[in-house]
Amino acid sequence: MVDKQPFYRESLRADCSSCAGLCCTALAFSASIDFAYDKAAGKPCKNLQGDFRCGIHGELLRSGFKGCVAFECYGAGQQVTQQTFGGKDWISHPEIAQMMFSTLPVMIELHEMLWYLMEAREMPCPEPLGQELQRQFTEIKRLSGLAADDLIAVDTTALRNTIRPLLAQAGMQMQKASKKSKASKDFRGKELMGAELKGANLVNADFTGAYLIAANCRMANFSKANFLGADLRDADISGADLTDSLFLTQQQVNAAIGDSRTKLPEHINRPSHWAKGQRNF
Ligand code: SF4
């Protein structure tokens, strides 16, 4: 049975109010332009409050934590807190802390795969590809509901290796079905850091695994362009059209620079920091 898409997609978005500050504790961060200091895995961030809220939420960009603004757990935080551990938290129940922290990275990977598979399932794929996408979606959804002991044993690398070619095939089918252009530019894995793509016609382009860091993509047309695993940090997509781009994620968009003219797919939220004109992201 196909899940009601908008409803299920909502469960693949971070809901920090239903999480026990897991990404701010379980994950390790190195001092960089994304995070202001070195933080070890399993150690609470110094800005995390006792109520699991961020003490500098409104000042993250100014304070050198722009990676936190871009980060998206795909709803893994609330899944681990509310489902895997039944609403318990690691402060009230220190005996489960380590297991909670070990579970989070696995859940993030599973939920990210579910995000991609949800989109791929809607593409016009011939059989048996369509059935296989549905089968993988159902299986990963089942895995995400396992108990913590079983979850940490899931081989997410093997799952990714299975799913990646399926997503690539689905993306190609989608582009083939597009009537907008027969041309398709292949930028897979390309280094396009700082590239000048302003106003470019990039219909059907394939940016799978490409590095578009700080590229100037203002006013570009990305119709049916495939962004699977592309790095869009600081890419300027102001005024660009990404309405029906493929495999775009909230994290990619959060990390890019956009404005009120940027056209996004329906399932991607417009980052609030764009409205504040915080361009030096
Ligand atoms: S700075 Fe705030 S959002 Fe980032 S890890 Fe620390 S507490 Fe979490």
UniProtKB/TrEMBL annotation:
PANTHER family: BTB_POZ DOMAIN-CONTAINING PROTEIN KCTD9. It comes from Planococcus koreensis. The lineage of its organism: Bacteria, Bacillati, Bacillota, Bacilli, Bacillales. This is Oxetanocin A resistance protein. SUPFAM superfamilies: Pentapeptide repeat-like. Gene3D superfamilies: E3 ubiquitin-protein ligase SopA.
